[in-house]
Amino acid sequence: MIGRLAGRIDMRGPDHVLIDVRGVGYIVFVSDRTLAALPRAGEAAALYTDLIVREDLLQLYGFPTLVEKEWFRLLTSVQGVGAKGALAILGALGADGLSRAIALGDQTSVKAAKGIGPKTAQRIVLELKDKAPAVMAMGGTAPASPADDDAVIEPVPVTPAAKATPPRTSGAAQAEALSALANLGYSPSEAATAVAQAAGDSPDAETPALIRLALKALAPKDTA
């Protein structure tokens, strides 16, 4: 199994890149969001990868973080969601956005991805909601980066298209907030829903603020 590639981008296609890893070229399919964030041809890059094997096909799919790779694996486990659909969802929402959408049961956000209908979006949310806390707790949002001996050329900054994406609460902060709520006795589903809501309301919140917002969301509502 090929789990990570680090080398130099030889070519960029509309939905894939060709990465030269010490003389061997690998075609890696990526989401629109990932493609926009990758450097130009000739620059160093690294991606976590998932290899899909079929009778007549071997295809590599690439992701900037381990959390995104895990969401891809979970999405493709849902009936009716193939690799192309999973990439479309990740391209539309990103790993953090998908985590929040699944935890909150937000079918509308999932449905916004190209090629994903309402029934499929509903199935995704229902089947994966219980798995959202574990993925959010991974905290593996650090991007894959070339090792010193892989980087023949210094990487260039993220492209303007990628910079235009609003900053979001870090996966590490969400993981720490989930852990704190679990220590306070909240169930994984309760904690995930509250943290997702807090991260959506305050995208730049660090761990302490995220915990406070999540606790506020979990507080009993006064019905009087």
Please specify the SSE layout and strand pairing.
Blueprint: E1 4-12, E2 16-21, E3 24-29, H1 32-37, E4 44-54, E5 57-63, H2 66-75, H3 83-104, H4 107-111, H5 118-128, H6 132-136, H7 160-163, H8 171-183, H9 188-201, H10 207-218
Parallel strand pairs: 3-5
Antiparallel strand pairs: 1-2, 1-4, 2-3, 4-5
- Cα-atom radius of gyration: 18 Å
**How many extended strands?**
5
Uncertain regions spanning at least 5 consecutive residues: 150-168
Counting helices, strands and paired strands, the structural category is alpha+beta
Strand order, sheet with most strands? 1-2-3-5-4
Average pLDDT works out at 84
User: Architecture of the largest domain, CATH level 2?
Assistant: Orthogonal Bundle
How many domains in all? Answer: 3
**How many angstroms separate the termini?**
58 Å
Largest sheet: 5 strands, mixed, barrel
GO molecular function: ATP binding; four-way junction DNA binding; four-way junction helicase activity
InterPro entries: DNA_helicase_Holl-junc_RuvA_I, Hlx-hairpin-Hlx_DNA-bd_motif, NA-bd_OB-fold, RuvA, RuvA_2-like, RuvA_C, RuvA_C_sf
Region (Domain III): 169-224
GO cellular component, one term: Holliday junction helicase complex
Can you give a write-up of this model?
- GO terms for molecular function: ATP binding; four-way junction DNA binding; four-way junction helicase activity.
- By secondary structure, the protein is of the alpha+beta class.
- It folds into three domains: 1-64, Beta Barrel (OB fold (Dihydrolipoamide Acetyltransferase, E2P)), CATH 2.40.50.140; 66-132, DNA polymerase, domain 1 (Orthogonal Bundle); 171-218, Helicase, Ruva Protein, domain 3 (Orthogonal Bundle).
- 46% of the residues lie in helices and 17% in strands.
- The protein is built from ten helices and five strands, in the order βββαββααααααααα.
- It has helices at 32-37, 66-75, 83-104, 107-111, 118-128, 132-136, 160-163, 171-183, 188-201, 207-218; strands at residues 4-12, 16-21, 24-29, 44-54, 57-63.
- A five-stranded mixed beta barrel has the order 1-2-3-5-4.
- Residues 150-168 have low confidence and may be disordered.
